[in-house]
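FORM 7B: Structural annotation worksheet

SECTION A. Query
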Amino acid sequence: MKRRFILLWILITALIVLPELAFSSLNLSGLWNATTFSKSVPDKQGPAIIAKNGGNLLYLAKDGALYELTMAGGLVPKGQPSGITNIVAPPTYFDAGSGNYYIIYTTAQGTAGNRIVVHHFTSSTGGNIAVTGINNASYGVTAYIDTNNIIIFAGTMNGTLIRAPVDISTPNNPTFAASVTVNLAGPIKAPPVLNPARNRVFVITQNGRFYVRNAADLTAVRDFTLAGEFTTPMAMDERYLYALSNDGTIYKIDADGREEHERFLSSANSSGPLIDGDGIIYIFGDNGRVVALNSNLLKLGEYTLGQRVTTTPAIVKGLDGVTYLIIPTSDTTGVGKITILSFNPTTGQFTEVWTYNVSDTFPISAAVNVGPLGALYGDNYYFVTATNNGTVYAWRMNARGPYGIWAKYGQNINNTGFIDSTAIAFRTRIFLIAKEGYNGRELSDSLLGSTYGLLYDATVVDADDYPLRTYRNYRTNETDPANVIEGIPGSEKLVVEFATPTDAKLLIGRYVTPRGGTPPSTDSRFRFRFWKTGPGAYEGSEADNPATITFRFSDRTIELFTDATYTFYVYHRYPLDSNNEGTQTIFGFFDYNTFRTNPDAAIQTINASPVQSGKVFFPYKWEIYQWDPGQSTGYTRRTLYDQDSVTLPLSGPAYLEVHYAELNATITLLLPEFAYGKTRAY
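SECTION B. Predicted structure
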């Protein structure tokens, strides 16, 4: 009986703490402590949540009341403007430095009394609030800081596109300047999108009219029409925009107005497309159906959650290298759940790895936010969302994100609505791996010792190729992450240039001590020749030097191949009383371009040197030692007899000893009657 009670108690405990258990290789625990993952704000509803760096949350209720929910569990009021009754879309958040912060949002409260709000606050106070009226409901803003101004873009259900600058030269007194407005041919329910250079703004109206406008003054660049109705946010990668119509058709649009489209859903939900760090596109619709597409709009996989996706999900990358989608969904019965799916792009398989049920539904404003807990560029992150009844749900995780870059609200910790590199909360690395061309062995420290890899110089540049950081005499094949260059994924690039060859001691003086003379101090030289190109490899041309490599959302490993010059050091031993030895240094060149398709054709012939002190000798024995790291000795050894020359593969340096004999002996041969062939005497 006692044993049964203990087993029952263990089972009950396991069920209670299920949301904090480790699953697969992704671990979750409550944000506030291991078992505390939810907090409520009394009498507040429909909040938007910002995941600040460090674990404190910003909580914006639908009536404009702003709070900071601390890691210690405290609730700190930050002020509330009057006349706000309905915030639908997530806000934008800025840390402007010097302890000044801003929340920016629009309202959707009928046809009158709507406004754009800029709410300044500090770590201790609520600051001041600036508002400007707009002519109808609005569903989201795009904004950025330009020196002493915040530039805000918004659209209204009257079809008005707005560019609203806000002066923040006095940080605690934000002031709206004169706005620029243009009227478009339909209601605007999807928030505008800025390109990364922030000189173009893209807008789609509810009736499918697509506009490209100059961001400075909203003058026209081009416009065209897409079929269908559009109410969900657009997404953008470095080149294309993606728009999901209400009938489930996904459009891929370039800035010149060319488009492709495919239909995979019968209807869209409240989330637009997401794009992960590998370029995979996710769309959501029907009754919680998730579809993954590649950049050519070909379906990779799908999964059905059974509830509607009512706010923007998030994508994170686990430390196990797996892509995870965090998806809040809502049921028509008034309840919801948070589901985490893993996705394998190779097999196209989604797997449900975790689900947590909640007692209310999720509003559009509660887009999943992801932020770092500790060191800004570490791997200790958390995610947060909230339900309509004002309850916040947050978990720590051993993953980082958002894994991907898409220009829409919820894209990053600032929700800035464009590809905003400053809002990406982690860095990734580019590992360069140099290989010799004959066997494809890595030029690692285990192979080459302290002179491993190739030396290179590098510069990290931004999206406009402006140099940000320089690095000199770094090495490829680095195993210490601290010595591997980092950058911001999606926006920064690494410019790599090889100039100095790498000299190494692979055999001579390392595994083999040669006889006679002074052997060379190094026996191998490697020099850059080609990058490995193609899917998952370097994105440029194989001979690029310098080469420009983009930081992506996962660490990258880029391979390159080398030309090699190997030393063949030859010791000659003659049967003389004096002057009885000699040495010879021969250099063999492995040209990767010539031999990469047939390395066996790369050979080096070494001829005997039979003349010494005016006499001619015969090379009767060759002792050959050639570098071979696959052997425990570090080399292969062969003995050959009666050879005027030997031919060796250009697979590495070699040491050869050639022993000679005299040819002046007199012998008497008794031969059979039918003997034939050549017989040497020595």
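SECTION C. Observations
The helical segments are 2-16, 445-448, 592-595. DSSP finds three helices and 53 strands in the chain.

SECTION D. Sign-off
Analyst initials: ____
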